[in-house]
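Quick review question:
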């Protein structure tokens, strides 16, 4: 069976599915060893645990919440950080396309539109008052009905070939997604991260699409949002001891349903056990999912956003015994449970942001997953 088929059939509490762009899929089944971490030092604790529990040739799959506190409600069972060494690892091909049966099985329940506009207005007022430079405001919708998380993963893999597709299963719940955004990757001594900030919808025609790309590339608001992220990543990596390469060009990356501004940031650092997790801790949360200044933005989100993000916008990935690994920001994601799916999407609010336009941006991001199940 393929890794996804093994993942779907696994009867145990713990299961992970991972497919990076251009690589074979991997399923991690069962938990040979687990370490859970909480609090402000959770990334250092996870790095120390990885150095301690991983034997040669082993990998651990790791996921973190956006915030440093355990999940509540539907997110119960997803702590603020969890490292799992699987009992069994299956590698193989990913599905070429997702299954078509069951489409339209879920219905969307969304009562957040008015409250989201209000939250964006509050964020804009805080920025105008000089309290923040940028803050990402997220909203949550629910798609009600029954669907197998493995079906969602297959559809995500079929649609988003250039994204990392992930599934972290905990009992009857499974956190799934397809992220375009590397937070921190350590391959040998090479460090890679992406600044992904600035968004435009796809056009209905090739001419409309090209016009949207041009507007995105030139839009002052989107460029300002993107620069926040690039500057933050370079500063934090330098403080972590990474010898940085010159900044690469900013490009428009096109995905199904959406365009993003993307800048790749690279550098060098000597690998050591747990190192990839230390880099993750140095970077999370970036201004692309939190804001700037970071601590003020996180406090604003906790006080005003009105939802438990859970693992949405947190780091997910894997690490090996050498300290090399790959972690993505958990975007285009959903928590699948017995009753349906809970989905979050956010937009970066800066000076001049318009509440209606930011709401539309979250609609575009939510549609990346909703279109697969509704």
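Suggested answer, residue by residue:
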């Amino acid at each position: 069976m393929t890794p996804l088929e093994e993942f779907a059939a696994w009867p145990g509490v713990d299961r992970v599915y991972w497919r990076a762009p251009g690589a074979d899929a991997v399923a991690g089944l069962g938990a040979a060893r687990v370490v859970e971490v909480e609090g402000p030092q959770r990334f250092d604790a996870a790095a120390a645990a990885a150095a301690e529990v991983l034997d040669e040739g082993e990998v651990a799959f790791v996921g973190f919440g956006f915030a440093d506190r355990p999940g509540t409600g539907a997110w119960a069972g997803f702590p603020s950080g969890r490292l799992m060494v699987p009992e069994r690892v299956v590698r193989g091909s990913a599905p070429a396309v997702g299954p078509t049966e069951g489409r339209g099985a879920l219905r969307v329940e969304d009562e957040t539109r008015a409250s989201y506009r209000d939250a964006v207005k509050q964020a804009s007022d805080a920025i105008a008052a000089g309290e923040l430079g940028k803050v990402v405001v997220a909203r949550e919708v629910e798609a009600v009905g029954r669907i197998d998380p493995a079906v969602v993963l297959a559809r995500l893999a079929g649609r988003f070939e250039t994204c990392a597709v992930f599934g972290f299963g905990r009992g009857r719940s499974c956190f799934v997604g397809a992220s375009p955004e590397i937070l921190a990757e350590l391959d040998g001594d090479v460090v890679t991260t992406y600044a992904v900030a600035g968004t435009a919808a796809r056009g209905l025609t090739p001419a409309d699409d090209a016009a949207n790309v041009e507007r995105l590339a030139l839009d002052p608001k989107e460029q300002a949002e993107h620069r926040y992220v690039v500057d933050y990543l370079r500063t934090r990596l330098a403080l972590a001891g990474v010898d940085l390469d010159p900044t690469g060009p900013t490009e428009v990356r096109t995905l199904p349903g959406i365009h993003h501004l993307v800048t790749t940031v690279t550098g060098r650092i000597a690998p050591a056990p747990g190192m990839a997790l230390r880099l993750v801790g140095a970077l999370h949360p970036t201004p692309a999912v939190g804001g700037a200044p970071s601590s003020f933005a996180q406090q604003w989100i906790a006080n005003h956003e009105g939802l438990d993000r859970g693992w949405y916008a947190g780091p997910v990935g894997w690490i090996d015994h050498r300290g090399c690994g790959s972690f993505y920001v958990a975007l285009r994601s959903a928590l699948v449970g017995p009753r349906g799916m809970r989905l979050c999407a956010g937009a970066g609010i800066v000076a001049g942001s318009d509440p209606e336009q930011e709401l539309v941006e979250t609609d575009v991001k939510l549609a990346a997953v909703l279109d697969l199940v509704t």
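Why it works: Residues 220-239 form the longest helix (20 residues). The chain has a mean pLDDT of 93.
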